[in-house]
Amino acid sequence: MKPKISVGYASCGIAAGASEVDKALRDAVSTTSMDVEVRRVGCVGMCHNEPIVEVHMEEGVYVYGDVSPDDAESIVRSHLGEGVPLEEKLIVSPEKDYDYFSSQKKIVLRNSGVIDPENIQEYIDSGGYDALKKVLDEMSPQDVIDEIKDSNLRGRGGAGFPTGLKWQFAADANADKKYIICNADEGDPGAFMDRSILEGDPHAILEGMIIGAYAIGADEAYIYCRAEYPLALKRLNIGIEQAKERSFLGEDILGTDFSFDIHIKEGAGAFVCGEETALMHSIEGGRGMPRPRPPFPAQKGLFDKPTNINNVETWANVPWIIRNGADRYSEIGTERSGGTKVFALAGKIKRGGLVEVPIGTPLREIIYDIGGGIDQDLEFKAVQLGGPSGGCLPAEYLDTPVDYETLTEAGAIMGSGGMIVMDECDCMVNVAQYFLDFTQKESCGKCTFCRVGTKRMLEILDRFTEGEGSQEDIEKLRSLAKYIKSYSLCGLGQTAPNPVLTTLRYFYDEYIQHIEHGHCTATVCRPLIIFQITDECVGCTRCASECPADAISGDPKSKHVIDQGTCVKCGACVEVCPVDAVEVE
Amino acid sequence: MSEKIEITIDEKAVEVDRDLSVLDACRHEGYSIPTLCEIEHIPEPFGGCRLCLVEIETDRGSMITTSCDTPISPGMKVSTFSEEIAAGRRAALELLLSEHTGDCVAPCSLECPATLDVQGYLAHIANGDPRAAVKLIKEKTPLAISLGRACFAPCEEECRRQMVEDPISIRQEKQYAAEVDIDEPWTPEIPGDTGKSVGVVGGGPAGLTAAYFLRLKGHEVKIYDMMPELGGMMRYGIPNYRLPKDLLDREIDWILDLGVEVQTRVEFGEDIHIEDLKEIHDAVFISTGAWESWMVPIKGKDLPRVYGGIDFLVDHALGNEVDIGEKVMVVGCGNTAMDVARTARRLGKEVTLVYRRSAEQAPASDEEMKEAMEEGIKFEYLTNPEEICGCEVNGVSKVTCARMELGEPDASGRPRPVKIEGETVEFEADSVILAIGQSPEVDKLEQEGLSIEKYTLTVNDKFSTNIEGVFAAGDVALGPCSIVECTGHAREAAYAVNAYLNGGLDAYTPHEDYKLPFGYNHIDEKDEEDFADWNRMPGIRMPVRIPEERVKDFDGIELGFDSETAGSEAERCLECGCLDRFECRLKEYSTDHGAKQENFEGFKHDYEIDESHPRIIRDPNKCILCGSCVRTTEEHGEGVVQFVERGFQTIVEPAFGDPLGDSDSKLVGSLADACPTGAFEEVLPSVKPGPFELVEMGTTYCQGCGLGCPAKVYGDGERSLKLSPIEGHLCDIGKFESLPHMFEDQAGELDDVDGYTIDVYASLKATSEELEALKKLAHATGGGVHADVPSIVSTADREDLLSSEEIYVDEEAFSLCPVLKDLVPPSSRKKGPDAPISVVTASEDVEGKRVVAQSGANAVGLYLDDIRPLMSKEFEVLLVYDQEVPENVDADYIIQMVSDSRLLSDKADVQIPIRSWLQKGGTVVNIFGETIELEPVVPSNLPSNVEKINGLLE
Which of A315, A388, A450, B250 has the fewest Cβ atoms within 10 angstroms? Predict the structure, then answer.
């Protein structure tokens, strides 16, 4: 086998410098006479180690992390030329396991970081489009639906509706035309599962959609993807072109009389467009505003035609299920929910990145075994699941299995898979405020509870973080949350209070601290904290010259003092003090 | 016929169409469910306001949810109301209110104890219609004249105009209107007798008010009064120079002329008792006032020539001589003290008024104090009498007073006057009149078995005393108060009595404009800064007689406004109250659900109000984002306004934030029709738009173009002011351009045209009947009838249009008949005339099925009647009928018969008024060939147009 070098070349890798590394590797290779192929692959999933370079040798795979362009030459000369790997950057080797990978189960991310996403042949070589052939050769549309039903696959967009059942509704609808939509409008702050799949394995999504179209009888589809994902859009376009060339897409697919076409619709980045009715309205050319359901899209969807809409991750599961069988899929995961879930692990974590685990895996395993625990070994405080519509769970939930039911019971949601870990330096009131600020600004403005209600909740939280809240405000917050959850028009409003409700439920004391004592234990809420200089001060004057508000005075070599009235609580003094003499209370 | 299914609404089983939403099913069955975002003719629910909550129970459980977007299903149980449902709706309303700004009702009206519609009557005066102003006032009180002269005008204190410079002279404006009305007073209709009778004891402001409103309900009323004449304190307490008694007499006579019986010189508790009254009447109304002066417990108060303020005024009014010597000391600084002091001054006395607090705290109005000072009355503030000196024989000789200073605030919030020890001052005085307060004569009331509390007669919240069937209002129940307080109190009490007489007091609930001021209401907090950019226009006060003259007699001192001054003063009104006050559904639902604006208080936007359109004001601060306007224009494919921004910043505005006035849409008026609040408001075509509570005068077919859309006509009963669509839309031609401008006075004399040939040039709006008469006239003289009839008419009808999925439209046709857009949805509009059916103008001759848009309401009728355009340019006599006189015609004599003053032309030798299309009946044929019967909706004094034409023939 000829050695191969793969460069993780998704947005995240590129941002970390993958293109420079890629160029350096190619240059290095070109100066040697070695027959080495340098490839660009999708996201490997280890955000914490980007840029990532894999070296594929006869004896196995070597993974390098934090590779700089300067390392390129060493890797090529030393490892490929002399057989001596670059130890200090080596994460995985045939002799060295890495539990970040070994604890995961990759179905959706099976090809991401492995194949070149812009080359359909690599997808085909890995078994791609076999599922489509199987479907067209051997299965009736109903067989396909039954297979998906048996797999226990549930929608990965957030709500977890059984996918097979959804397909059945669309298949049963009687109409001259039906549509398929891929919801690629990933909008949760801190979530990037879908982007990685779109960039790393676009054909898996296309193949899933083609199979879905066959099953429900659709002949046209849209992928709704935000324009902020240029690389994903580029690779989707390439994928569609290549699939058409190979007759996986277009007229008379693979010589059958089944025809199907996919369009890409670029979204402008409104969070609410991830809501299916808003998304459809946006494709139709209107403002992204949800409408009441019923009618559900399966009855009356895009352009008033029956429409099946699933998200990226759901579609990417489909070819695997068809190829490997529903039984193998449903064996993974829990009784009520088959397969795996991809999470975007972020926050105060040692090893952040994309993580795919069987549904039902406990949080502790994800955060500690895969994620390596809390950054700087601080105390775990909470984990925010499901993005801004989700909830914050405390330590007592670390051993609960992550599945749809448990999370809902705990007040969070699976959502699309955002997982943000927080430590003792995070203020939960501030966290709730942050997420609510996001949903509030992203409300489409249509319904009263969401548009005005979330604003009023946010104003109350603002008061709390300024030390101006009252017990009465907490009651008002609760009652507003109740009304907004119960009576909002769409999912955005119905879930917007979740971060507030879960933090109220699990971190009530912190609220009371803010309200009654004007105190923010985590020293996050600026109006509530005080910066003071202790006797440790050596009078180096650096804080005084750094202070943007000129709030610090003192003679050189004597203790400095902060004028509390002038202090803007920016924390610059803390940063520059060489002897840690600035205390924050 | 669609399939029916059975559901249960509020425990009642009903059968309804299967394809309905819960909201529509409930509405069909007569249940009212609040909603602010549903538009009846657009089937898809919007689901924005979230008000239409109901509880739904199916076999899958029960939940509270919105009804507009929930389809019914067999066996479903719906509850339309529960405390929990109401709480949800209230929360939605309160959230909407929390970002809503503006006053519902102006502060002046809110402050008025009788809740008079100040903004409304000022608007009428500004519009030059004082009679309408009086009518509006008389809906709330019969005492327009007395209040115009003697009200202490709390409205003026709240008037926002003072944040610009001066308050409006509201009382004097009322005086102007009331006195214009005096000779031929506007008088409400009295319904038939109910057979019930009420005895009203005491004919002061409260008694007269109760008598008036009880008569208006058809009850018999008899007033008993102890004094020789009616009027109570208005006659015996308020001096003539403030309220001339000849004017008071006119007001009282007008009330009595409604059929009120009177017996004077009969004293309650002496000459007549509760038992007698209960025997004679079905209900008794006590309004005996507060006639007892308070006396301070100071040394010397029993000396000769020490009087109570009211006693002195009553004696004076009765013409009794009161010995007050030459130097008079008046104690107190309220309105009664002013009356006493100024009366004494007019009797030629030297008057000193002492008051224990400073001028700022004085209860008397600033205006009265100023006038009193002008008249030479000496004011001694911070001075409190300690002893009245004198002897039993010679009476008062001097008064020793303590000097005071202001201390901490007392219970009333005013600084407490504190005696400065050792500082006293002596005043020479021949008499002392104590005008410090008064109270009802409670002893007599108690003797009659009536229950008393704190020196007033006890009444419950339904104005009922402890004796069944006996009610009370005014000073006797409230303690001494003003005319306006009494009249407001007594009006509401009269409604309670009416409920009692009509079968039970239980049915009585306070009227919206009583205590709960006008139902749900909110006030826009404003200060001077908000008005910094306004043009300063100093207020105009009525001219008064000069002090040197007026102290010589008791004649009225105010000299009146002329109509021009009254108008320009009224024009200064800032119109604080919302123009949508009488129609706003947000206000209505908020009242129903007890919503409070302050419950979810927070940031409010401060958007600029867009007044660029001549007839529609856009105030985004009142927008509730219900989307009705957006949808109503989207429906026509013309997006006049749209949603922009997100979250709390979301706003509805014209594209690119352009001014509404720049829109070239002819459906801008329909934004106001669609808007449930005052965010889009139609401004009536007058100097001041009110708001006025318009009455529905009838239904008609708009004659703005050849489409003939059905419309409701609203106005004040005499004039039409507004057209609204009955279904679908009315365009701006219909709403704004075709409301007639009345023309009622003939200009010029009609010459004898006997023997001349009369040719007629008729409007395309002329009815078929008018046409017949015109033809008869013309033919009889050898002339003909001409009109600018179109060259082609429609070959397709309404059905053809509605059933076609592909229609070619010439946009010009839409500008002639904008509501055609209702019939041709954007999805059916095709480019290119090869569509099976075309919508065109008469200038575009297309083959095949076509609808030809016409601007003339009866263009098709005239066409079918073979009327053709003018061929010649020279005439002996040309009768121009209901349109402009054409240029380039040469006629010896031109008669213009016209209904709208805008059409008048100088070229006409005589201009004869005829009835407008809202005043006449007749037949027209619309562009679909449908015959439309017009009914007269607006009254007119003119003979019918056909009679008028026939008259010319004679």
Answer: B250
A370 and A265 in a single domain? The answer is no
Domain count along chain A: 5
Structural contact between residues A489 and A446, judged by C-beta atoms closer than 8 angstroms:
yes
Start-to-end C-alpha separation, chain B: 58
Q: Please say if the pLDDT value at position B747 is more than 90.
A: no
CB-CB under 8 Å, B650 with A272: no
Across B695-800, the runs of DSSP E, i.e. the strands, are 695-701, 710-715, 720-725, 758-762, 785-786
pLDDT tens by residue, B895-936: 999 999 999 999 999 999 999 999 999 999 999 999 999 999
In a domain, A110, yes or no: no
Round to whole Å and give the CA distance between B64 and B87: 11
Question: How many other CB atoms are found less than 10 A from the CB of residue B397?
Answer: 17
Region B307-333: mean pLDDT is 94
Cross-chain CB nearest to A292 (options B47, B51, B603): B47
Nearest to A398 by CA among A428, A345, A362: A362
Residues forming a β-bridge with A225: A184, A266
Report residue B519's pLDDT band, with 50, 70 and 90 as the boundaries.
low
Torsion of CA B685, B686, B687, B688, to 10 degrees: -100
Contact flag B98-A294 (C-beta cutoff 8 Å): no
B162: Cβ contacts below 8 Å, ≥ 6 apart? none
* pLDDT tens string B771-810: 999 999 999 999 999 999 999 999 999 999 999 989 999 9
How many Å apart are CA A5 and CA A74, to the nearest integer?
13
Residue type at B821 in one-letter notation: K
Cα B643 to Cα B629: distance, rounded to the nearest angstrom: 10
- Looking at residue B517, what is its pLDDT? 52
pLDDT at B518 exceeding the cut of 80: no
Q: Which two tokens stand for residue A423?
A: 């430590």
What residues in A contact B645, CB-CB < 8 Å?
445
B66 to chain A: closest CA residue: A487
| Distance, CA of B761 to CA of B884 (rounded, Å) | 10
Q: Provide the CATH number for the domain around residue A416.
A: 3.10.20.600
Considering the domain boundaries, does residue A98 fall inside one?
A: no
Q: Are residues A298 and A219 in the same domain?
A: yes
pTM above 0.95, yes or no: no
Q: Chain B 53-72, CB below 8 Å of chain A: which residues?
A: 53, 64-66, 68-69, 71
Report yes or no on A108 lying in a domain: no
Average pLDDT over residues A187-192: 87
Is A451 within 8 Å of B68 when comparing Cβ atoms? Answer: no
Distances (CA, A) of A89 to A50, A62, A350, B934: 11, 10, 17, 93
Q: What is the pLDDT of residues B817-876, one digit of tens each?
A: 999 998 998 888 887 777 889 999 998 878 889 999 999 999 999 999 999 998 888 899
CA B604-B607-B610 angle, to 5 degrees, is 150
The answer to whether residue A48 sits within a structural domain is: yes
- The distance of B667 to chain A (nearest Cα, Å) reads 21
Question: A292, A231, A295, A234: which is closest to A15 by C-alpha?
Answer: A231
Best of B18, B50, B84, B626 to mutate (most A CBs within 10 Å, chain A): B50
Helices and strands (DSSP H and E) totals, chain B: 30, 40
In which domain, by residue range, is A33 found?
A: 4-92
Cis peptide before A295 (omega within 30 of 0): yes
Look up residue B269 and give its amino acid.
G
Residue A96 has a pLDDT of: 83
Q: Does B620 touch chain A (CB under 8 A)?
A: no
Cβ separation of B91 and A455 shorter than 8 Å?
Answer: no
> Does B534 lie at the interface with A, CB-CB under 8 angstroms?
no
pLDDT of residue B866: 92
